[in-house]
Design a protein that fits this description.
By secondary structure, chain A is mainly alpha-helical. Chain A has eleven helices and no strands. Chain A is elongated and about 55 Å long.
Chain lengths: 231, 231
């Protein structure tokens, strides 16, 4: 599945990062019922939407029964929250891998983030599970809303910290812009497909980094500076 | 409501544009059942999601019955399509008002588009009906998908035409970037609320326009040019 400004943990990405995935490997062979329910529910929610899937379909696909599901999760809402926590954990793991690989080259890490984000946009036509959940779960008091808000805020702040470490001129403005561009690309991919504006994500993100992120001293940085100060 | 890169037609915006709304005024007093169903359904879909609302709730709120609904719309899917066509029509009307007001100042129109887009982001916590529908309606063959794709493509192209008329240096790249930024802002508004990155939409959009949209001759435009050529 997922994520923005973080992204999906999946084998292809770990291989690309040249770092082996360490977590959870020993559990792959025989997942416990609880884990099997979460993995199955997350996959079905991702494909068909949270509201498009009921607990009956989940227990059937997970090869379990409702009693087991409700023993582990008090309600469908609790299961949704557990799925979103899993999404968040995987996005954090990808960030950790990035940080580990680019310990001494933070600008390099920023460019790597752009490429990974682009891979997410291209690879997954269903976009970001967190954003999709925010759109589907319209109730303002839904327990998932706090998870979504905390996750999105943390991801944006992690990107802002990377921008600061990369010593770009306007780290907060750049992190906001890249976050929204990524969010928009994942939604656009769902609306108009892979050939739409999201296909130019890398070009746009790199142009934004070049234009008001990292500004060589010899180039006038007046515009973005003025705008940032004028906040 | 809605739209992106177009936006919602509403009294506040028309007042802001200094142009009186012309369409549909004579129908306000006594809408026909079909129109009443569309207006009601659209409002309920917007607030609660397309999957969160059934035809029973729609006919009750519209003060009509299922027989009347099904006489006008063969199915809920047909009604969804009619609602999205209404969204598209209103977004086009806003564009027409903008074009009319800024006939000889296309750069001014671009800045006005940014302000109107920001108003949409702030005013409406439920975002873009078209994007929301794309996320909710996961079936690849849903009749609404064609409407959504055509609408988003047309809106993006209208913005690109405006960028060209405004004689910015990279009209297509700018239109793509502003489209995704706007899309992302509307989704972010739903995930993290009005205080998140979407609050800085105007600042980001103006920085992007200033940086790789309109570049004075005396400033090096190498970066964005190189990136656009490298496509």
């Amino acid at each position: 599945m997922e994520e923005k400004p973080g992204m999906e943990a999946k084998p292809g990405m770990e291989a690309k990062l040249g770092v082996a995935a360490k977590a959870g490997m020993e559990e792959v062979a025989r997942p416990r019922p609880r884990d099997r329910i979460v993995v199955t529910a997350r996959d079905l929610f991702h494909k068909h939407g949270i509201r498009g899937i009921g607990v009956d379909a989940i227990v059937e696909a997970a090869g379990t029964n409702k009693m087991t599901l409700y023993r582990h999760f008090g309600s469908k809402d609790d299961l949704i929250v557990a799925c979103l926590h899993k999404v968040a954990g995987e996005a954090d793991a990808i960030w950790d891998l990035l940080d580990e690989k680019y310990q001494t080259d933070k600008l390099g890490e920023l460019h790597a983030w752009v490429r990974l984000a682009a891979d997410c946009v291209v690879a997954d036509g269903r976009g970001c599970d967190m954003a999709n959940a925010a759109i589907e779960l319209t109730e303002s008091d839904h327990p998932a809303r706090r998870v979504i808000e905390e996750f999105k805020t943390a991801q944006r702040n992690r990107l802002a910290n990377l921008c600061r470490a990369a010593e770009v001129t306007h780290p907060d403005l750049l992190a906001d812009a890249l976050s929204l561009l990524f969010e928009g690309a994942r939604v656009s991919r769902q609306s108009v497909g892979a050939e739409g504006p999201s296909a130019r994500f890398v070009r746009m993100a790199e142009a934004i980094i070049a234009s008001f992120g990292k500004q060589p001293a010899e180039r006038a940085s007046k515009t973005a500076s003025d705008i940032e100060r004028g906040a």
